[in-house]
Write a structure and sequence with these properties.
alpha+beta, Butyryl-Coa Dehydrogenase, subunit A, domain 1, Butyryl-CoA Dehydrogenase, subunit A, domain 2, Butyryl-CoA Dehydrogenase, subunit A, domain 3, 3 domains, four-stranded antiparallel sheet, 11 helices, 15% strand
Length: 391
C-alpha cells in the first residue's frame, strides 16, 4: 500500500503574514507618496529608513543575541518585495545593511558581531558592502585594494566604486588583499569605520534609476585598521565570507525585482482597465491581455524561485545555484515587465509624469548589481557541471 506523501506547503505562517501586511502598509503610506520626489531630487530616504527601523522592518536576520529580530532570509525577502513595490530605490537603500551584515553574521568574531551588528540593531544606522572597484566588478579577483600588517594595525589602501549607501554608512565591510601571491585565498575582509582618518567619499553618482539610493566611490589612503577588525580574526577568509554573503542576499534582491515587477504590472493593469481604444477597454484587446498575462506569470514564477532559495538558506541547505536562478530570472523578468508596462501606457508611459518610467529605470540595475545576469548564468553553469558525472 502506498504511503501518503507529504505535500509542499506554500502558505506563510501567521507571523509572516502579519509581517508582510505591516511592510505593505508601510510601503503604501510611507514610501510611495515620496518616491517621485526622492527620484527627482536624488534624495536619500534616511528618515523613512529610520521609521522602518522603529517598526522592526530592517535588519531582520541579525540574530537575537546581537539585538536583532532573529528572523530568516525568507522574512527579509517578504519585506523587501513590499518595500520595492513602494519604490525600487527605497528597496535598495533600506537593504544595504542586509548584504553588509551577512558576512559578519557568518564569519565575524563574537566581539565583532556584538559591536557592529549591535550598532545596526540598536540605531537606524547604515552599513555598506565594499567589494567592487573601478577596475574590478564581476571579476572580484581583480581588486587592487591592499592591507599590510604593521604592528597591531593593518594599513589599508585602495579605491572602491558603486558602493550602495556609502555616503551615510557608519561602517564598511571591505575586501582587500593581504597576500596577493595566494590569489583569492590571499583576500581578507575588514570592518572599517567611516569616520577614520584616510577614508574619503567620492561624489554621489547620478544614476539612470533608483536615485533614492546613495551610490558613490570610496578611497582608502593609509587607513589604520585595528587587527581586531579583521573579519573572523584570520587572514585569507575574505573571499569566502564575501561570496557566502551573496547566497543570503541574492534571494532578497530577487524579491526586490518581484516587488518592482508587481508595481509595474498593477499600474499597467489599472491603466488598461481605464483606457479605451477602438471602442473597448485596452485589456479587452487580446494583444494587451496576453502582455498582462505574461507579466503575471513571470511575477509568480520569480516569487517562487525567490522563496525557495530563501527557504533553503534558512534551513542550512546550500543555495548557491537556487539563489542564482532566483536573481537571474527575477531581474531579467523585471526588466521585461517594466518595459512592457511602459508599452501598455503608450506615449504616457514614456513620460516621467507616470510611475512606470521610473520603475523601468529602476529595474535595469537589478540585472547588474550583486552579480550581473551573465554572472548568474556562469554560476548556474558551474553548479550544473559540478553535479555532472561522466558515464
Amino acid at each position: 500500500m502506498l504511503q501518503p506523501v507529504a505535500m509542499i506547503g506554500f502558505e506563510l505562517s501567521e507571523e509572516q503574514e502579519m509581517l508582510r501586511e505591516l511592510a505593505r502598509d508601510f510601503a503604501r503610506d510611507n514610501v510611495r507618496p515620496h518616491a517621485e520626489k526622492w527620484d527627482q531630487k536624488g534624495e536619500f530616504p534616511l528618515d523613512t529608513i529610520a521609521e522602518a527601523h522603529s517598526l522592526g522592518l530592517t535588519n531582520l536576520h541579525i540574530p537575537e543575541e546581537y539585538g536583532g529580530a532573529g528572523m530568516g532570509i525568507l522574512e527579509e525577502a517578504i519585506v523587501s518585495e513590499e518595500m520595492s513595490w513602494g519604490d525600487p530605490g527605497f528597496g535598495t537603500a533600506q537593504y544595504s545593511n542586509g548584504l553588509t551584515a551577512a558576512p559578519i553574521i557568518t564569519g565575524g568574531t563574537e566581539e565583532q558581531k556584538h559591536k557592529y551588528l549591535g550598532m545596526l540593531a540598536k540605531e537606524p544606522l547604515v552599513a555598506a558592502y565594499c567589494v567592487t572597484e573601478p577596475g574590478a566588478g564581476s571579476d572580484v579577483s581583480g581588486i587592487m585594494t591592499t592591507a599590510v600588517l604593521e604592528g597591531d594595525h593593518y594599513i589599508l589602501n585602495g579605491s572602491k566604486m558603486w558602493i550602495t549607501g556609502a555616503g551615510y554608512a557608519e561602517w564598511f565591510f571591505v575586501l582587500a588583499y593581504t597576500d596577493r601571491s595566494k590569489g583569492y585565498r590571499g583576500m581578507s575582509a575588514f570592518i572599517v569605520e567611516s569616520k577614520w582618518d584616510g577614508v574619503e567619499l567620492g561624489k554621489k553618482e547620478t544614476n539612470m534609476g533608483q536615485r533614492a539610493s546613495d551610490t558613490r566611490g570610496i578611497t582608502f589612503t593609509d587607513v589604520r585598521v585595528p587587527v581586531e577588525n579583521l573579519v573572523g580574526g584570520v587572514e585569507g577568509q575574505g573571499w569566502m565570507n564575501a561570496m557566502k554573503a551573496f547566497d543570503f542576499s541574492r534571494p532578497v534582491v530577487a524579491a526586490q525585482a518581484v516587488g518592482t515587477s508587481r508595481a509595474a504590472y498593477e499600474h499597467a493593469l489599472q491603466y488598461a482597465s481605464e483606457r479605451e481604444s477602438f471602442g473597448k477597454k485596452l485589456h479587452e484587446h487580446q494583444a494587451i491581455q496576453f502582455m498582462l498575462a505574461d507579466m503575471k506569470t513571470k511575477i509568480e514564477a520569480s516569487r517562487l524561485l525567490c522563496w525557495r532559495s530563501a527557504w533553503e538558506a534558512d534551513h542550512g541547505i546550500r543555495n548557491t545555484e537556487s539563489a542564482a536562478h532566483a536573481k537571474r530570472f527575477a531581474a531579467d523578468s523585471c526588466m521585461e515587465i517594466t518595459t512592457d508596462a511602459v508599452q501598455v501606457f503608450g506615449g504616457y508611459g514614456y513620460s516621467e509624469e507616470y510611475p512606470v518610467a521610473r520603475l523601468m529605470r529602476g529595474a535595469k540595475v537589478l540585472q547588474i548589481y550583486e552579480g550581473s545576469s551573465q554572472v548568474q548564468r556562469m554560476i548556474i553553469g558551474r553548479e550544473m557541471l559540478r553535479h555532472t558525472r561522466t558515464p
